[in-house]
Design brief:
250 residues, alpha+beta, 10 strands, 30% strand
């Protein structure tokens, strides 16, 4: 029996999920994908592996997964079969056959996230789960951009991740971090070699604090050096966060 590995790009609305990773008795993205794979494989369990987990409420445009299969379906059939079986808040947007040594998590060389704030005077009920309302206090984007420069490069991000982070090595490299006003939205985009638990949301919360004048841009450097989560500001809400892209060498 020949085993083939399928790589899939997944988009999902995280609003009604208890995060990505399977949890007993909870609706998660992974559990829905594995349920669909089980149906395609005639009730034989198939376990999917993702590039990383996302929290409840977090969205994705470009999550990457892989799974192994004994079936020989054309690539477009994989996409079609999964989308027929998956709930409408999950879509498979691309599939490919890859080498068996490809791993969605361990082969990844980088990730890109975005964070979205809304400038709207009244936050639309149709947008409430997909952006975070800024309210009446408009941030100073120039100061946020100035603060962002201190985060670019290789740093110990202990101050910018959850105290529940299990990983001992908290050194990560941010390659790009930008803020841009696009229509009624302020968009933060960050790309790096990897991210710790709640790291992007903590960065978003800290930059907004600078933009609102609660911290100075140069405070970022001191907070990084402190290696103390209590020194950074509040973690930004989950529903403004999007996993945009995962990169691989091959």
């Amino acid at each position: 029996m020949t085993i083939r590995r399928v790589k899939a790009i997944v988009s999902y609305d995280g609003t009604h999920f208890a995060g990505y990773q399977s949890q007993p008795g909870m609706r998660t993205v992974q559990s829905e994908i594995d349920k669909a794979l089980k149906k395609i494989h005639k009730k034989e369990p198939v376990h999917s592996v993702a590039s990383g987990r996302t929290d409840a409420g977090v969205h994705a445009n470009g999550q990457v997964i892989h799974f192994d299969t004994s079936l020989s379906l054309p690539l477009d059939r994989w996409q079609m079969a999964l989308n027929v079986l998956l709930p409408t808040d999950i879509r498979i947007v691309g599939t490919d056959y890859v080498d068996l040594d490809f791993h969605a998590r361990y082969s990844a060389t980088g990730k890109t996230y975005s964070y979205k704030w809304s400038y709207s005077k009244v936050h639309s009920p149709f947008d409430r789960n997909f952006s975070v309302h800024l309210g009446h206090l408009r941030p100073d984007i120039d100061k946020m951009q100035e603060a962002a420069q201190y985060l670019i490069g290789q740093h110990d991000f202990t101050s910018f991740c959850s105290s529940k982070t299990a990983t001992l090595n908290k050194v990560r490299t941010i390659r790009m971090l930008s803020l841009e006003k696009q229509g009624d939205y302020l968009i933060m985009t960050v790309e790096g070699d990897g991210f710790l638990y709640n790291m992007v949301r903590t960065i978003a919360g800290m930059l907004l604090a600078v933009g609102r004048g609660w911290n100075r841009p140069e405070d970022i450097q001191e907070i990084l050096q402190a290696c103390d989560r209590n020194k950074a500001g509040k973690t930004a809400p989950a529903h403004g966060l999007y996993l945009e892209n995962v990169t691989y060498d091959k």
